[in-house]
Automatic annotation (TrEMBL):
Native source species: Streptomyces guryensis
Membrane topology, from the record: Multi-pass membrane protein
Main localization, broad class: membrane
GO BP field: amino acid transport
GO MF annotation terms: transmembrane transporter activity
Record-given protein name: Amino acid ABC transporter permease
Taxonomic path: Bacteria, Bacillati, Actinomycetota, Actinomycetes, Kitasatosporales
PANTHER family: L-CYSTINE TRANSPORT SYSTEM PERMEASE PROTEIN TCYL, MEMBRANE COMPONENT OF AMINO ACID ABC TRANSPORTER
Annotated ABC transmembrane type-1 domain residues: 69-269
GO cellular component terms, semicolon-separated: ATP-binding cassette (ABC) transporter complex
Superkingdom per UniProt: Bacteria
Keyword Protein transport among UniProt keywords: no
């Protein structure tokens, strides 16, 4: 009888509360301290370096630098458009059952992805040494007059970009279920109509993110056009540094403009990706603008309710 009472009393006593002790991550503290120390050392080194930081703001909006930035943006957009259009054609050729078109597309991708962009630019720039005269039958002119720095940069950057875009587009097309193609053909659509109206719109959610990354990379890769005398940002900064003797300072100015351009287009890429992700993700996180709009609405509601009281 006594054992039964003791067991009942023991069962009625609540168990002792477990105290959770967080795990100490000493490695994080050590890594953080090392990173802070390295950043501090770099900051001290640059603060004591022979760099005239005061003249950098004077050249950020210099007319030559602004024109160079505009040329960088201009040639990047044109080269990207050429790369996207030609990349779609190459991707369709690569996926074709025709062995000739498939082989030609594979060889193009193999060549342009396997050789440096700078070499391709220099080849186009010096093509007049091989073909002095351009004769198309309906048009004839000296190659030196035809192959301007703008056209050289456009061909060198755009044709190279097409090789990478073709692989991106091919991956996007292959991500669409084959049943979509079969259903389109059953409705009487041609191969071209199926590609334009069914396949590509669905493949955009796979194509858009890497395409945005490629364009941001194109903004920086366009600096190689300096080697073919294109008056882009690096060329303008170098020309100014040769007269002002502020070499490093001009490169800092160029870095500011590259960071500005890439930041702006990264924001654009973010919103474009959200648009094409609406059909695949139910609860998208709020954008910064949506958060600001929501906070302003809450503040207005609170002020209105306090005013009524």
């Amino acid at each position: 009888m006594t054992d039964t009472v003791d067991k009942a009393q023991a069962a009625s006593v609540p168990p002792e509360q477990i105290k959770a002790i967080p795990v100490r991550h000493y490695g994080r503290w050590v890594a953080g301290a090392v990173v802070v120390a390295l950043v501090a050392l770099i900051g001290v080194a640059f603060s004591n370096a022979k760099i005239n930081y005061s003249i950098i703001p004077d050249y950020v909006f210099d007319s030559g630098i602004v024109n160079g930035a505009w040329t960088t943006l201009y040639i990047s957009v044109l080269a990207m458009v050429l790369g996207v259009v030609l990349g779609i054609v190459l991707a369709v050729m690569r996926l074709s059952s025709n062995p000739v078109t498939s082989t030609v597309s594979w060889f193009y991708i193999w060549f342009f992805r396997g050789t440096p962009v700078l070499v391709q630019l220099l080849l186009w720039y010096n093509i007049s040494l091989v073909f002095p005269i351009l004769n198309l039958g309906f048009y004839k002119n000296e190659m030196t007059q035809v192959m301007t720095p703008v056209l050289t940069a456009l061909l060198g950057l755009g044709l190279n970009e097409a090789a990478y875009m073709s692989e991106i587009v091919r991956a996007g097309i292959q991500s669409v279920d084959e049943g979509q193609t079969e259903a389109s053909h059953a409705l009487g659509m041609t191969q071209g109509q199926t590609l334009r109206r069914v396949i590509l719109p669905q493949a955009m959610r796979v194509i858009v993110p890497p395409t945005g990354n490629e364009f941001i990379n194109m903004l920086k890769t366009s600096s190689l056009a300096y080697a073919v005398q294109l008056p882009e940002l690096i060329k303008k900064a170098t020309d100014i540094s040769s007269t002002s003797l502020a070499v490093v300072e001009m490169y800092f100015v160029a870095c500011i403009w590259y960071l500005l351009l890439t930041t702006v287009f990264s924001i654009v890429q973010y919103y474009v990706e959200r648009r094409y992700a609406r059909g695949t993700t139910r609860n998208l996180p709020a954008t910064p603008l949506q958060k600001i709009r929501t906070n302003l609405t809450k503040m207005n509601m609170l002020s209105l309710s306090s005013w009524r009281r």
